[in-house]
Amino acid sequence: MSEPDRAAAGRDVTLAGLAGCFLKIALASFGGGLSAWTQRVVVEERRWLNNEQFLSAVTISRLFPGPNQVNMAIFVGQHFKGFPGALAALAGLLGVPLAILLSLGWAYFHYHEVPALRATLAGVVAAAAGMALSMGFKLIGGYLRDPVALLFAAAAFVAVGLFHFSLALVVVALAPLAMAWYWPRGDRGTAEEPRP
Fold it and tell me: What is the pLDDT of residues 151-180, one digit of tens each?
């Protein structure tokens, strides 16, 4: 979809559409994989954002305090409809799932010894991990031609995954370096364009 077409799709966003979108994401991602479902629904299905805008939103959502997906819903809702949009997206993300979670919590603490329930929950965790991997593979394509982006990603993975440094410490160390490297300069184009 071209940028003008995507901009036209963004103009068609309604409060009900935002609430429905994030309700769909919340219900489809039972057990995890919220980021993967958000990418699928917001980028691939509704075409409200492109992959680059989505990655920017994910980054911002993770940098701020609070649950990432709550931040993402607020970010997307506010982007399209301001404060009412943020509230609509947040209501869609949290309303029905909260009621379901309270019911499931009650059932779990009364029936958690049932083997079928344990097996079901183990399957849900595996599916959530698969969804997260699938999103990563979809989004990495645009960065394979940018060795510096891969270097930052590898540094973050090694620091957190292998050396178990605090995520906050890694963000504080790498974020300024990445921002300085990709800051728009007249001789290098805009931040939207990956470095050759």
Answer: 998 999 999 999 999 988 998 899 889 888
Helices 68-111 and 51-63, axial angle in degrees (round to 10): 70
Cα–Cα distance for residue pair 153/51, rounded to 1 Å: 17
Q: In this structure, what DSSP letter does residue 143 have?
A: G
Distance of alpha carbon 169 from alpha carbon 181, whole angstroms? 19
Q: Provide the residue ranges of all domains of the chain, joining segments of one domain with +.
A: 3-124, 145-196
Angle, helix 68-111 to helix 15-28, in steps of 10 degrees: 50
For 165, the 3-state DSSP assignment is coil
Percentages helix, strand, coil for the chain, rounded to the nearest 5? Answer: 80, 0, 20
